[in-house]
# Entry
Amino acid sequence: MGRLQDKVAVIIGGGSGIGAAIADRFAGEGASVYATSRKADETASAEKSENGKGSVLQVRADAGSTSDVKQVFDKVRDAHGRLDILVLNAGMSEFSMLGDISEDLYDKIFGLNVRSLLFAAQDAISLMQPGGAIVLIGSIADVVGPKGYGIYSASKAAVRSFARTWANELAPKGIRVNVVSPGPTDTAMMAATTDEVRELLTGMIPLGRMARPDEVASAALFLASDESSFTTGAELCVDGGMTQV
# Structure
């Protein structure tokens, strides 16, 4: 039996990269997964995982739209009447040094990374029962100060702060809240950067390479499963030691 057998999970931002890896891993452990993406093909039926345990249903929704996200939870309510696991993965970053930061850039990054995450969690908790788990996808940027990414770093620090407060607020309901904070990860977003940037980042990682999306998914699985039943308010860094040693 899988570690998430018969669980119902929603992944906001589950169409590619880390989010898609988490969706596949959760389904492989027996969950019925709803993974949102702006490009999802909703004409497709739920796809069974490779080992046939669970399934992934791609749902078209803009993570930055509160009405879109609310409709996802309405769909889950109609189909299952409950939600066991919520993963909030949608986010963005954009380079801009202090002195060049526009109001539009600030609003765009905080709107997706912070505002949408807050209201998605708020909509979800009415569906969650004791034993539920919320996993926020943060970043090690919450504790470092990379030049040109001050807005992104501040938004991820807000995510870390939310986890502490929500863990405290939701503990009486039996709902746990934790954060997975990846370091540099081998995704399409990282592939779009220059060779120089990737080499620089890799050189800062004690294990000598970037993370794979499936390695971040393994951390999310631990925090979503009963194996972490006495863990809440915590941050699990998946960074090859980059911020830890």
Notes: The chain has one domain: 8-234. The chain is about 40% helix and 20% strand.
